[in-house]
Amino acid sequence: MIFSNEKYKVVKVFNNNVLLATLNGKEKILYGKGLGFGKTANEFIPANMLIEKVYTIENEASSNQFSQLINYVDSKIVGLCEEVIYMIGQELNEELNENIHISLTDHIAFTLKRLKENDEIMNPFLVETETLYKHEFGIARKATRLLESRLNIVIPDGEIGFITLHIHSARNNGKLSNTIKYTRLVSSMADCMEASLGLSIDRKSIDYARFVIHMRFAIERLQKGNPIKNELLSIIKKQFANSYKVSEKLAKLIEESLNVNVVEDEIAYLTVHVEKLKNQSLVVDLFS
Fold first, then answer.
1. Neighbours of 195 (CB within 10 A)
2. Sheet of 9-13: strands edge to edge?
3. For residues 206-226, average pLDDT
4. Helix axes 134-151, 157-171, angle to 10 degrees
5. Is residue 140 scored above 70 in pLDDT?
6. What span, in angstroms and rounded, lies between the C-alpha atoms of 21 and 42?
7. Is pLDDT above 80 for 5?
8. At the top level of its lineage, which domain of life is listed (predicted)?
9. What does the pLDDT read at residue 3?
10. For 187-211, what is each residue's pLDDT tens digit?
11. Can you say whether the dihedral through the CA atoms of 122, 129, 175, 140 is positive or negative?
C-alpha cells in the first residue's frame, strides 16, 4: 500500500478500482479502492492518492500480449479480473508470475463468453485438481464467488478447477501446461489402474485423495532426481506381485509424460499405494 507521489498518467480506466497508467514511459496496472473513479485518459493521478498495488509486466512479449488483450476484452471484465488477481495475491501473501494478468484474464473472458452462449463447461480433472492443489482450490472458489456476485451469474464447479490451475502455475513461476500435464497424468494413472485391475475407483473417496497425494510426492521426487531407497523392494515385489505389475505400467506412464527414469524402488513405492487403493475399491465394489 502506497500513496501516489509519482506522476502516474492514466492510459485506460478499467473500473472504479483498476486502471492502466504510465510512469516514466512504463505501463503499470494500478489497483486501489476508488482509484479509477472519475478518471479519464491522459490525466495525472493526484498526489497522495492511495494505491494499494502496482503491477508491472516486465517481459516485452507479455506486455504486448496484455496490450492486445485489453483491446478485445471488455474493460469492466479486465478490471474485475485484476481485482481477482489482487485478491489471490493477498490470500497467498506472495508475488505471482506476471503472466497471470494475461492467462487468467483471457481464460475468464472466454469462460464468460461460453456461459453466455449456454455452453457446458466440463472438467474431467476436477477431483485431482482439488486434491493436488487444495489451498489454491479454496482461493479459486473465492474468486468464482467474487465473479458470480459482481456479474450476477452462476459459475459451475468445473471452472473452479481451471482457475486453480492458473493460480498454481502463477505462484510457482511455472508454465500452465506443466500444471495441467501433472494433473492429467495422475488421472491417467487412475484410469490405468481401473483397466488393469478391473475395478471402479471412487474418485471422491478419501482413499483416492490419499493416492493422489502420494502420486504427487512421487512425481515431485522424480522431477527433482531424488528417488527414494526402498529397503522392502524384494518383499513388495513378491507379496504384491499383481499390484507391482500394475505399478510398472504406471511407471511407464510417468516416464513417457515427464521424460524421467522410474527406478524399481519407486515402482515398489507405487505398488504399496496401488495395493491400498485396490483393496479399498474392492470392498466398495462388494457392497455396491
1. 11
2. 9-13, 18-23, 26-31, 53-55
3. 86
4. 120
5. yes
6. 9
7. no
8. Bacteria
9. 58
10. 999 999 999 998 888 888 878 888 8
11. positive
**Nearest 5°: CA angle at 217, between 214 and 223?**
140
Q: What is the pTM of this model?
A: 0.82
CA 274 to CA 208: how far, in whole Å?
Answer: 10
Q: What separation in angstroms does the CA of 85 have from each of 140, 226, 241, 277? A: 10, 34, 49, 38
pLDDT higher than threshold 90 for residue 34: yes
Q: Are 9 and 26 in contact (CB under 8 A)?
A: no
287, three cell numbers: 457392497
**Residue 286 has what pLDDT?**
34
DSSP 3-state assignment of 72? helix
Q: How many residues does the chain have?
A: 288
Query: How many angstroms separate the CA atoms of 262 and 48, rounded?
Result: 58
Alpha carbons 55 and 244: distance in angstroms, whole number: 50
- Dihedral pair phi/psi, residue 110, rounded to 5°: -70, -40
Percent of the chain with pLDDT over 70: 94
Report pLDDT digits (tens) over 99-124.
999 999 999 999 999 999 998 888 98
- Confirm if 46 and 62 have CB atoms less than 8 A apart: no
Task: Return mean pLDDT, the chain.
Answer: 90
Contact 183, 132 (CB under 8 A): yes
CB 251 within 8 A of CB 270: yes
Residue 2 has what pLDDT? Answer: 62
Q: Does residue 223 contact residue 258 with C-beta atoms inside 8 Å?
A: yes
Please say whether the beta carbons of 193 and 250 come within 8 A: yes
Report the largest interatomic distance among the alpha carbons of the chain, rounded to a whole angstrom.
76
Q: Report the alpha-carbon distance of residue 142 to residue 44 in Å, rounded.
A: 34
What is the set of domains in the chain, with CATH numbers? 1-56 (2.30.24.10), 70-174 (1.10.1790.10), 185-286 (1.10.1790.10)
**C-alpha torsion sign, points 190, 193, 198, 199:** negative
